[in-house]
């Protein structure tokens, strides 16, 4: 079980609800669609989101239902559950539990089944298409590429990347690269702009050489300050002045290189990744 976040940012007086993303597999689909749906209401509600993958047996489903009861007991409201559950027995247990159960498969499967005139298989483990060994290995290799080439760790591999993200520390490079790898099969690398780069007033040759693949991520300095304060409270790294200077110098770099720039201040990882995909297709 992974707790994702409370969306408290000066909105402590808003009502709170607990949301589960549940799947018999990795849960990427349930989390992605569920997050998109609740984002339409997050100005009125603080959502506590909990990620529950691999709920693939009746025993696990019953245990999770007990968790729902505890949420109702402690919060007085039933949790909201977004699920992608192909197995009828497991789905039935969760659907009858003390929660608002939203089966995301139903939204699409029933219509598709009617159109095709076929009954869905109901097999486990198909929600992300990892039924072909080669496909699975390819995807794992791509995810490993993103992790290996995080924060400029392997500049010698940047020529192999489909896209290279650059920007100041905590501007969203790493999670965006991993999302691109996991959801789109994109080989994504990233390079952090540091004081050393600003001091020499130039970027490594590998970035300049791969300018066509390069996308700069920028962020509002005040937002960056808050993010860094959570990571290293009271440090020079987190100071507002340093955040302002780094953002300004990064933008100057982007303008000098003439590369595409995307602002991550108020956009989700999903939105940023979608925009990057459009840019990759244009390139």
UniProtKB/TrEMBL annotation:
<keyword id="KW-0418">Kinase</keyword>
<comment type="similarity">
    <text>Belongs to the pyruvate, phosphate/water dikinase regulatory protein family. PSRP subfamily.</text>
</comment>
<dbReference type="GO" id="GO:0004674">
    <property type="term" value="F:protein serine/threonine kinase activity"/>
</dbReference>
<comment type="function">
    <text>Bifunctional serine/threonine kinase and phosphorylase involved in the regulation of the phosphoenolpyruvate synthase (PEPS) by catalyzing its phosphorylation/dephosphorylation.</text>
</comment>
<dbReference type="Pfam" id="PF03618">
    <property type="entry name" value="Kinase-PPPase"/>
</dbReference>
<feature type="binding site">
    <location>
        <begin position="167"/>
        <end position="174"/>
    </location>
    <ligand>
        <name>ADP</name>
    </ligand>
</feature>
<keyword id="KW-0723">Serine/threonine-protein kinase</keyword>
<dbReference type="InterPro" id="IPR005177">
    <property type="entry name" value="Kinase-pyrophosphorylase"/>
</dbReference>
<keyword id="KW-0670">Pyruvate</keyword>
<protein>
    <recommendedName>
        <fullName>Putative phosphoenolpyruvate synthase regulatory protein</fullName>
        <ecNumber>2.7.11.33</ecNumber>
        <ecNumber>2.7.4.28</ecNumber>
    </recommendedName>
</protein>
<dbReference type="GO" id="GO:0043531">
    <property type="term" value="F:ADP binding"/>
</dbReference>
<dbReference type="GO" id="GO:0005524">
    <property type="term" value="F:ATP binding"/>
</dbReference>
<keyword id="KW-0547">Nucleotide-binding</keyword>
<dbReference type="InterPro" id="IPR026530">
    <property type="entry name" value="PSRP"/>
</dbReference>
<keyword id="KW-0808">Transferase</keyword>
<dbReference type="GO" id="GO:0016776">
    <property type="term" value="F:phosphotransferase activity, phosphate group as acceptor"/>
</dbReference>
